[in-house]
Amino acid sequence: MELNRTPWFESYPHDVPHTINPKLYDNLPALFDDCCQKYGKRNAFISLNCSVTYNDIYEKTCALATYLQKVLKAKKGDRMAVILPNVIQYPISVFAALKCGMQVVNINPLYTSHEILGVLRDSGARIVICLESITSEVLKIHDQTYLDHIISCSVGDCLSPLKGTFVNFYLRHFTHMVPKYDKDKVIMFNTCLKEAEDRTFDKVDIDFDDIAFLQYTGGTTGKPKGAMLSHGNIISNVAQADGMYSPRLHKGEEAILTALPLYHVFAMTINLMYAFYIGCTNLLIIDPRKFDDLIAQVKKNPDISIITGVNTLFNAFVNYNLFDKVKLSRLRLVVGGGTAVQSGVAQRFLKASGGIPILEGYGLTECSPLCCVVPYTQTEYNGTIGLPTPSTLARIVNIETGEEIWDKGVPGELEFKGPQVMKGYFENSKETENVFDDGWLRTGDIAQWCDGGYLKIIDRIKDMILVSGFNVFPTEIENVVSRFDKVLECAVIGVPSKTTGESIKLYIIRRDPTLTRDEVLAYCKKYLTGYKLPKHIEFVETLPKSPVGKVLRRYLKQNRLKV
Fold it and tell me: C-alpha angle with apex 364: 217 to 298, nearest 5 degrees?
């Protein structure tokens, strides 16, 4: 690394390494086995008030891996789709597939059957493990896929026998959440575990560079593509996260709140892989939208010391007065990701939590995902995504010329190199070629250098608004509006204009129902120059969001009108 091209090192805390050893383990099953041995008697996961230890997880994972290998004849390189929310079966399924040398294909369980079909067909998955509530949908599309086997899970499968029976009975007969399906065409999850009892697993030789995950993403453009993430990519990212966060943490003593879905790459790497590596007790939240239930579960587990989340989740913590209802005396690390944390939300969270800041991180699926982290020593929100993680190189390039930019405050496209960067997109050489720039991964994000080598994201290239020739970034306006105490949530898009090319449209969810358009404009005028002022303001009840809580501007754009 050239010292003049690593300005962020001057801002590293003294106990954060400049580089990491990416080969903590040869592969992810080795990480799994080692951590289960180290933390065997410690609770690994808590779900619906039931806990399982690392020893329990090891036993069930080995059983499922044995069934996959010996009964379903799964072999190295096969792909297995996992369509599960945050239930205990998720880590068991993922680690079992990895032990078999299979490639895991994570699929959002909220997807429609059409969306599930697209990923199943593109990936060529042979086996799928899904929740009982969507098994009927998978059966409908089965003939259009390459699937040989469907394994169906019930929510209560890994809970205590009494609790599991009650939960499954309740969901099947009182909530109508489980449509009827032909059980003769599927394999029940607990049947897999039972039938593995008298069989022996044959260890699989898995290389550091073998593919572990096909993680589907929209990438920088176009339809979803499968980012090929190797065992080495994920292990490297675990080591990078540990390099940045370990001075604040104590291995074998932490408890993490997992409200973000584990099938999303941020939670998969940080809440599952990294948390497993440091021996966390992991509180799994199946549906974080049911916030009263979330608070009730946190009340029963007040030893939470790590929280990961996105802007909307942190906003909800403040609005639901989480810190007044639960005294999280051990909380010491809060990490924000998935989308930019708005300054107003960060400031209110800092006050409500009693001085614990949200340390924003930045990443993307193609980077496993972590690339930048606000250091653990930061005590308040500074509006940046922090510093590149150890062994990561970052640069900003001119969008038009491709020339590198090292001057502070000059915007350009952010690019990365590092051991966490994917191998490419699955069977998509054209998109792989497009996303790499002479070995650097293009992010599609506009960023600028700040003092001390900190990086600040301005916005997505595709979301930039051009008003009478001036570049306007939605995030800047959203940050301003989010600080207005009468605003609960907001989002900004550009809409076509006959006079200025594009004009700015602001969507607001009101905290105070009396808030008016004139008040919003008066507030914006204090902080924004004329061409950045919203021309159109619409008050709404909800904003379209992804499963992790990211506001989906593209859906707002689909409904825009020419004005």
Answer: 95
